[in-house]
Amino acid sequence: MLKPQPSINHPGHLDRQTWLLLAVNGLFIMASALSGTYFGVYIWKASNDYIQIGWFTLLSHLFMAITFWVAGNGVKEGNKMIYLRLGIGVSALFYALVLLLGGHALQWIWVLGIVQGIATGLFWLSYNVIYFEVTDAHNRDRYNGWAGVIASLVGMIIPWCSGFLISRMAGESGYRAIFILSFVIFVAGIGVSFFLHNRRTEGHYDWKLPYRLLGKPKTAWRPVLGALVAQGVRESVFGVIIGVLIYVQTGSELKLGNYALITSVVGFISFLATGIWLKPAWRNKGMLVGVIAITMVILPFFFGISFTTLLIFGVGAALFFPLYMLPMTSAVFDLIGQDENSVRQRVEYVVARELALNVGRIVGMAIFMVTLSISRAPIVLNSLLLLVGSSPILSWLFMRNVLVSGRRGKNKIDAKPKGVV
């Protein structure tokens, strides 16, 4: 048997399994950041077209959602560690395909989008189920804080190194080098995953649970799913457009790396502080401050999109983003752990969470593509960014009652998963 979950007598304690999961997550993020930060630029340089990037992203989100729903059956009734490794392995395959296709990658952008979506879906489905199993309501804020710190550290070092390498190597040699390094790091992540334990799940996979949650009028899951859709709207657009805008404004991959370095330093400090000091009782007010701030930092774009205004946005978003994201993530997983029945159906609830996120991502990217197909005037682009970027306010409006009820102790049962293979 695996040693028990962190005790309520030691709040915030992270055991060996949580640190191993953080390591797997860190390697996955590292490999993704090494090349993913520049993949949009890679496509932009080949096409000079935001719509091509949009199609890649839209297909990725669509097949990510399908993968979550279909693979949920295997994760619950099979071995979730196999699916974790498959997710990492297919991510490695994605960059192998990019290397093989070379200059023809743009012609096969739809295939790459599908492969990316499948890889991401497999990894994050299994990762989030394992994350729920190795944490509880007493240490999730701490775990999420450390995950944010690791992501920020990776963001400080890796994109800058990639930008430096690309800028110093002729032609596409730099891009090929970082795609190869990503492949190698993904393989290392598979190796580390073998030290994680697989907890058994009980029962059969309920294919219709996400749909039935929407039909329950008095469940907390209805506003939570709405909040997750709103979260996804912002993620899809800003995850694609900011890096490309920086390259368009500067023409330099190295300056994109510098941008990532500066914003990640701020994010590192903010995630570290928020993860340590943010208590469940403060989640509601903290999230409100966070969503207002990350919306306000979009306003400088109306004075003109430049490297300076992009940097103001990046620093401001990095500073306040943890106040938005940590309450969202912790509260949703606390809700999954509210009773033993929810714990038994933890796979289905994770699938519901990810389906909602991807619905939002698909909607956000569809809005982005339709708007730019009509007009690409600066005022239109800025208004689009403000509209999409203000969606976290909707997340808070949906979540505020859930956060308050969690503060009062209604969602703190957090039953523990049983059984280990």
Summarize the structure.
The protein has 421 residues and is mainly alpha-helical.
Describe the structure.
This protein is mainly alpha-helical. The chain has helices spanning 16-47, 50-77, 80-101, 109-134, 140-168, 173-193, 209-214, 221-250, 253-277, 283-296, 307-336, 340-344, 346-374, 378-389, 391-407. The model is unreliable at 1-9 and 408-413 (pLDDT under 50).
Give a topology summary.
Layout: H1 16-47, H2 50-77, H3 80-101, H4 109-134, H5 140-168, H6 173-193, H7 209-214, H8 221-250, H9 253-277, H10 283-296, H11 307-336, H12 340-344, H13 346-374, H14 378-389, H15 391-407
Structural key phrases:
single chain; Growth Hormone, Chain: A; 421 residues; 15 helices; mainly alpha
Structural class of the helix and strand makeup? mainly alpha
The counted number of beta strands is 0
Low-confidence stretches: 1-9, 408-413
> What is the CATH superfamily?
MFS general substrate transporter like domains
| Largest sheet properties | none
